[in-house]
Each structure stands twice: as C-alpha cells, then as structure tokens.
Design goal:
The structure holds 2 protein chains of 2 kinds.
Chain A: E1 5-8, H1 19-30, E2 36-41, E3 48-49, H2 53-58, E4 82-85, H3 92-104, E5 108-113, H4 117-120, H5 129-141, E6 145-148, H6 151-163, E7 173-176, E8 199-203, H7 212-224, E9 230-234, H8 242-253, E10 258-261, H9 266-275, E11 278-281, H10 290-297, E12 302-305, H11 308-314, E13 319-322, H12 327-339, H13 341-352, H14 359-369
Parallel strand pairs in A: 1-2, 1-4, 4-5, 5-6, 6-7, 8-9, 8-11, 9-10, 11-12, 12-13
Antiparallel strand pairs in A: 2-3
Chain B: H1 8-12, H2 15-24, H3 38-54, H4 60-72, H5 76-86, H6 92-104, H7 111-117, E1 121-124, H8 138-145, E2 151-153, H9 158-165, E3 169-172, H10 179-192, E4 195-199, H11 218-230, E5 233-236, H12 242-250, E6 261-264, H13 267-272
Parallel strand pairs in B: 1-2, 1-3, 3-4, 4-5, 5-6
Helix pairs in contact in B: 2-7, 3-4, 4-6, 4-9, 5-10, 9-10, 10-11
The chains are: A alpha/beta, B alpha/beta.
C-alpha cells in the first residue's frame, strides 16, 4: 500500500486567518494531491468528513466557493498510514475523536506544533485556554511524530514533557521544519534607504504577547524628541488589549502620525512591507515570528526580540535584536534605524540576501519526516 | 539568629503593623480585594495621562490613588509596565523617590513608617500566616545577616508594600503562589530590578512541581513556573529536588536562561557563605 496521509484541515477551513491558518493552507496547497486526503471535523466533533465547497475555497483549493465539489459525508476513500493534525487541539471531544480514529484505523499519529506559549508565557494568554493546552501537551507525548515550526518550539516542548515527568515513557521524535514564506516576491533591486518620509511597520494581532504597548511607547518618545515618521499598524484587535487601545487613542488625539489597518489581504500586506522602512516586532514570545521572514524577504529591516525563535530568525541578517522588556533598548534601536541611513542600507543589504523556505520545501520536509518521500 | 526577631510580640508592635493600620484606612475605597470599578480605572488612566502630559509630580492624593490601583487592580504586570513607561527613562531610584516623595507628603504615611518601609529586603509570605519557626526562616535569616529588618508581608499587602519599599532582595517564601502573587512578584522584580530568591523548603510537599492533573489549576501552575524563570536563585535546606527545578528552567531556555543559583541553607552554612 502506498503511504498516504489524512490531513485534518479543520483549522484552515475557517473564515479568519492567523499564522496557523496560513500554515494549514500552505500544507494543502503544496502537498501532492494523490498522497493526501483532506478532512474536517463536523460540528459535533464526533466524525470527520471532506471539506465543503466553502471550506475548500477557504483552504485555497478552489477559486470560487461555488465550485462543484462533494460536500456529503463519506468514509475515507482509501487506506492511510498517517493522521496529521496541524493545529492546537483545544477541544476535548476533538482530541478524543482523533485518538479513537487513529486507534480504529491503526494509523500513525502526527502533530504540527506552533508554540508552547500557554506554558512558557501564560500571563499573555487567555486563561481558559491553558487547561486545554495542558491536556494537549500530554496528547502530543502519545503521538508517533511531532513537527514544530522552530527549534525554539521544539526545545520548549521537550522541556515541557520533562517537567511532566514522562521520562520513562517512549516519547515521539520532534522535528523542527521551519515555516515557509509564500507572499508574492518583491521586485528586483534594493529599496530606497535614503528617503525622508519614513514608515515604521508593526504587524500582528494586538494580544498582550505582541507588545504593542512597547512599540507605542517607543514611538511616542521618539516623536516627542522631534523625529518625524509614520507608524503603520497592521492586524486585528485581540484579547486584553484595552490598555494599549486607550494609549493608542490618546496618541491619535495628540496628533501623532499613526495609521491602523484591519483585515488586510496578502497583496495589501505585501504593499505595506514594500513601502515601509522598518518592521518592529518586539514580541514577548513567539513560536516562530512569521512577519520577520516576510519582511526580510522584501528587503525590509527588522527590529525584533533577541531570544527564542525570533532571535534564531534574526541571526541570518537584516535584523537588530533587543530585549523586548527593555523599553529603552528598543527605543534606541528604533531611533538608530530611523536616523542612520547607512545602518538602514546595511540592514537592507543583509535582508536581501536571506533565503526562506517555499511551501513545497516546507511540505517536503514533513513528508520526509513521515517517510513519504526519500 | 534569634527567634525573638520574629516573635509575636515584636511583630505586633512593628512598624509593619502600623503600616497595615494605615492601609486599612483606605480599605473602604477598595471595592473588592481584587478589582477596582470601571470608574476607578477611568480615573486612574485620566490622572495618569494628566500627570505625564504635564510632566509634573503627582499630588499626594494622586500618588496614593496610583498605589491603590496597583494594589487593587489585578492586571498588575501590564499596569506596572505601563506605569514604568509613563515614567519614561527614569532610573529605579528616581522612580521610587518620585513615588516615595509623593507618598511622604500624605498624612497616611507617617515619616517613621515610611522610613521603615525603605528596607532592603522583602520577605513575601503566602497568606496571612505568621513566621512559624525554622522552616520559614531561611530568607529571614539571610536578611538578618545583612543587618536588615526584612519586611514580612502577607499576600493582601504585598503589592503596595513591595512597590514602596524598592527592595534589592525579594524572597518568596512559599512557592504555591496565587496568580496575583506571581504577577506581583515578577512585576515588582521587573520594576525595581531586585534579586528574586525562592525559598523552596516546602517544595517536595507541594503540588508545585507536578504537571497539573486537573484542568482547573493549569493556569496557576504555569504562572508559578514562570515565576521561577524570573528568579535569581533558590534557597533550600536540602530537601528540595533541585533537579526538578532545573527541568522547569529548561522550559525557558529559548527565552534566555538565567542561571539559577542554588543555595543549601542550613543556618550555619548560610551565615558562613551568604552570597
């Protein structure tokens, strides 16, 4: 029997888009069709089915939601060897259903893990999610193989298992495969490093982990020192961001040059990367940090955090790293980038030489892990 | 070391008790122990904005209102962070003198009390229990060796007392901290850059190091581990399983592990080698 995969795309078949949705859609887009069967869980989370026409559209499989594709429930069309779950399973019933499916069909089970934030940075999460994550960590330990998006996430996951005192048990291998960058490629040539109307870009949802408050604070201090630049905020509002929102409103009332954009498309996002002069991404913790490689691939310098996955991405060039808890250090880094055109030129040059995974390379790394591809 | 330092009689008459009495004057304004009303929050932000927009010192009332918010308002970490940001690039000493100068002008803070509060060591105990003898004396002994009167705090007063005391050494006596205490501990350690030591004698008896077996305590457990990450070191008289503590520290390796100092703390050893 040819090895093949049941890919649980429930997280990618939804109307909104975060990093997790993007990863699922990248997998769907790049995986050889004959080797994978897409499934989503029904509303009761008691059985899986093929995606509906709308869900296929959301997954990027078809261009129009009305395309003729099957929507009825059906048993898997063939025997599979792996069940791959590429998102954080926070529903107990779905977790149980996955385990039952794997056992009944004698499948190998694999997960793709995005971060361990609820354990390592609980103060930035939704409190109610942490119990589910606690269960999820134990589920991961019972899998056959686990993929992560970064070495940092892999280290955290293995340490979490150690704390859970699962030492005596046979734990799955953990393979860090990175993440792809599939935004449209920039035009050839270096960006203008010597322009005067400078733009500072921030990309993310405004959850506490993203440190929007730190960004606003640094910008306000630089504006009050007389620096002239525009701050462009891209991304939706999120939980526990009222303090940042109040501060943002007060800065806007004070006449500071700030734009905010919600629900941006990929092409709009590319425009922001293309027209900005620096990405600020001083997140308090990340599993990966997708905006960093998106910015670098467009030759855009980045100021980001010095540790974890962000530090690992930054070491390839084009970045200045800081302690995100040190407001003064971040302010100084931003000031240097805004006031020193030779520094910008150097960072742009470095950024332009960084290389990034394509979706096909990303999926092939997973396929190699699953021994579907040699 | 003498137990008389922490005898009930001594403690009853300590300036700490006086301070608690002062604090109680303001209890009526605290709507609950853990939250302030939205009106209070609005006032807090309004006053804060005014102060920083005008670049002026807070009035005593305003300073006290700040402290009340910090005491009663639970998002302590974000609040502290925002608070520090509004203070701009002032150093720790300036921050504390800023607050302290304002507070010293309040009738509620008698100078003698205020002077006492500026201690170099704060010993945070869990709950309102009193020091019970040797098992709770590790950090206390440490502080005494430095010829300091440590401040003994219960959870109720911890935020405000820590804030005004600017400790250089913060000892957490009990690792089974509440979420609010965890937030207060690392917010304060972050704010004043104090050394944070954990007194881990009760570790092996606690649930602290076990993976959360029920969903309900997962968040609290993870917050406790997070507090360990922020610690400088751990005291133990030898009963502690340092190995398990090291495992927890590994969780934070990608964030930049801070070397966890380990000190076995028989009183004799500690007095001989306090650093």
């Amino acid at each position: 029997m040819k090895p093949s995969v049941l890919l649980d795309v429930s997280a990618g078949a939804v109307a909104f888009g975060t990093g997790i949705q993007r990863v699922v859609r990248d997998m769907v887009g790049a995986w050889p069709r004959a080797e994978v069967e897409l499934v989503v869980w029904d509303e009761g989370l008691d059985t899986y089915r093929p995606p509906s026409a709308v869900e296929f559209f959301r997954l990027g499989v078809v261009d129009q939601p009305s395309s003729e594709l099957h929507t009825q429930r059906s048993a898997p069309s063939q025997q599979h060897s792996w069940f791959l779950v590429p998102d954080f399973v926070h529903q107990f019933s779905r977790s149980e259903a996955i385990k039952a499916t794997v056992e009944a069909q004698d499948l190998n089970l694999s997960y793709f893990v995005h971060d361990c934030v609820p354990v390592t940075t609980p103060e930035t999460t939704i409190k109610e999610m942490t119990p589910a994550f606690s269960e999820y960590v134990l589920d991961l330990a019972r899998a056959d193989l686990v993929f992560t998006n970064s070495i940092s996430t892999a280290e955290e996951l293995k340490a979490t298992w150690e704390v859970a005192e699962l030492d005596g048990k046979v734990l799955p291998s953990v393979i860090s495969v990175g993440l792809p960058n599939e935004l449209p490629k920039p035009q050839a040539g270096l960006r203008d490093f010597d322009k005067e109307d400078l733009k500072v870009l921030w990309v993310g949802s405004s959850e506490p982990r993203k440190n929007l408050g730190g960004v606003l604070f640094a910008c306000e201090r630089l504006w009050s020192q007389g620096l002239i630049f525009k701050l462009v905020l891209v991304g939706n509002r999120s939980w526990s961001d009222q303090d940042e929102q109040n501060y943002l409103n007060s800065l806007v009332r004070r006449g500071r040059d700030i734009e905010r954009h919600f629900e941006v498309s990929d092409s709009e996002l590319v425009d922001f990367y293309r027209t900005s002069d620096v990405l600020v991404f001083p997140s308090l913790h990340e599993g990966f940090g997708l905006p960093i490689i998106e910015a670098l691939s467009h030759g855009l310098p980045v100021i980001t955090s010095e540790f974890g996955s962000m530090g690992q991405l930054a070491c390839h060039g084009g970045c200045i790293t800081v302690d995100p808890n040190d407001d003064q250090a971040f302010e100084l880094a931003l000031k240097n980038v805004l006031t020193d055109s030779s520094l910008r030129k150097s960072l742009i040059s470095q950024a332009s030489t960084t290389s990034h995974l394509t979706s096909h390379e990303f999926v092939n790394r997973i396929r190699e892990g699953l021994q579907l591809k040699t | 070391m003498g137990k008389s330092i922490v005898s009930k009689a001594a403690f009853r008459n300590s300036p700490q008790v006086l301070l608690n009495q002062r604090l109680s004057l303001f209890d009526a304004r605290r709507k609950t122990s853990n939250e302030v009303t939205s009106s209070d929050q609005s006032d807090f932000f309004r006053i804060r904005e005014e102060i920083f927009a005008l670049q002026r010192q807070p009035s005593p009332d305003e300073a006290w209102f700040f402290l009340q918010c910090l005491l009663g308002c639970l998002p302590s970490r974000s609040l502290f962070r925002g608070f520090r940001r509004r203070l701009g690039t002032l150093g720790t000493d300036e921050v504390m003198s800023w607050l302290f100068g304002a507070l010293s002008r309040t009738p509620a803070f008698a100078p003698s009390t205020a002077r006492y509060v500026v201690s170099n060591t704060v010993y945070l105990t869990n709950g309102a229990r009193e020091v019970r003898g040797d098992e709770d004396l590790t950090g206390f002994t440490w502080a005494r060796w430095h010829d300091e009167w440590p401040i003994l705090l219960s959870s109720d007063e911890s935020d405000v007392c820590l804030l005004v005391s600017a400790p250089s050494l913060l000892v957490v006596a009990d690792l089974n901290l509440s979420v609010a205490q965890c937030e207060a501990v690392f917010a304060v350690a972050d704010l004043v850059r104090s050394e944070l030591w954990l007194d881990a004698d009760a570790l092996s008896e606690s649930q602290f190091l076990m993976w959360p077996q029920t969903s309900s305590d997962a968040f609290e457990r993870f917050m406790q581990w997070r507090t360990i990450y922020g610690a400088t070191g751990v005291f133990s008289r030898g009963s502690t399983d340092f190995q398990r503590l090291r495992a927890i520290r590994k969780l934070y390796a990608p964030q930049g592990p801070q070397p966890l100092k380990e000190m076995r703390t028989t009183p004799e050893l500690q007095l001989a080698n306090p650093s």
